[in-house]
Amino acid sequence: MYDPGQVEVGDVILVRGAAVWDVVAALIRLATISPYHHTVLVGEGHLIEAGFTVTRSPLDKYEHTGDAFSVRCTRQRALSAVAAAEARLGTPYGVAELLDDAGRYFLHLPLVYPWNARRQTCSGLIAYAYRAAGVTLTYQPCPSPGSLSYSPLLQGHRPWENASG
């Protein structure tokens, strides 16, 4: 959980704890063996996320279900990543990419849709934005929220880490 007053522009919010009836979230968590099912980027006083389209959301939208991570990079690169994500506002969600992800995770099929900037999933948007700013969060072509959570460039507490060590 995060405090909307404490996050900074460029922070990444990984969302967990969706309602049990949210089938897509449950499948994402199951397929990726991760507590996370959604990824958003902190902009100037709002969140940037890929839903049906890339859109802005209130800064406190996920305060009870999201974990905030700062990205180990310069402030200028973080601002550049936010600008790259903002430039994608209105872009349709990558349904084909999501289906390709499902095939890879559940059926172990090869990657069909190569990673590109035309349409993106939520975590693909964040990876794309930071890659456009010169920061590689992960080398996976189509990252999941769970795979982003393991990025050594994300600084913050992960739910599976012991608070003392």
Provide a compact summary of the structure.
With 165 residues, the protein is α+β, with helices and mostly antiparallel strands.
Report on the architecture of this protein:
The protein contains 5 helices and 6 strands. It has 165 residues and is an alpha+beta fold. The chain has a single domain (12-155), classed as endopeptidase fold (from Nostoc punctiforme) (Alpha-Beta Complex), CATH 3.90.1720.10. A 6-stranded antiparallel β-sheet has the order 4-3-2-1-5-6. Helix 2 (75-86) crosses helix 4 (122-132). The relative contact order is 0.20. The model has no long low-confidence stretch (mean pLDDT 84).
Note the main attributes of this structure.
165 residues, alpha+beta, six-stranded antiparallel sheet, 5 helices, globular
Task: Reconstruct the topology from this structure.
Elements lengths: L11 E5 L6 H10 L3 E7 L3 E5 L3 E5 L7 E6 L3 H12 L8 H13 L14 H11 L12 H5 L4 E2 L10
Helix pairs in contact: 2-4
Mean pLDDT, as a whole number? 84
Could you describe the largest sheet, including whether it forms a barrel? 6 strands, antiparallel
Shape: globular
What's the total number of strands? 6
Q: Strand-residue fraction?
A: 15-25%
Count structural domains.
1
Total helices: the number is: 5
Low-confidence stretches: none
Query: Level of helix content?
Result: 25-40%
CATH homologous superfamily label:
endopeptidase domain like (from Nostoc punctiforme)
Radius of gyration based on Cα positions:
15 Å
Head-to-tail CA distance between termini: 19 Å
Q: In order across it, which strands form the biggest sheet?
A: 4-3-2-1-5-6
- What is the CATH top level name? Alpha Beta
**What is the level-2 CATH architecture name?**
Alpha-Beta Complex
CATH topology: endopeptidase fold (from Nostoc punctiforme)
